[in-house]
Fold:
Amino acid sequence: MIRKTALKINDLSTSYRIGKLQDIRKEIKGFDRKPGSQIFSNATISEWWAFHHGGRKELQFNIGFEEEGFRYGLALSLEASQTVPDITILFPKAKD
Structure:
């Protein structure tokens, strides 16, 4: 269910500034090329939640379904993962 919602947001976002998120990230971070073309990607959509492509190591736009219903917002994920095995690198970002 969250996949359908995330893909719909991707489609509808093209008319809004958030639809340029990957262009904005490229500019801010000084990437040579755009890291993705949409807000959410297959790599960042799970069964119950999704976060923006590239958002694992930065403040992330995310959506999800909880017992209370649909949620959306900004977050900093402090869970260890294959991408971020040592979450202490995220601590300075949480302080800012």
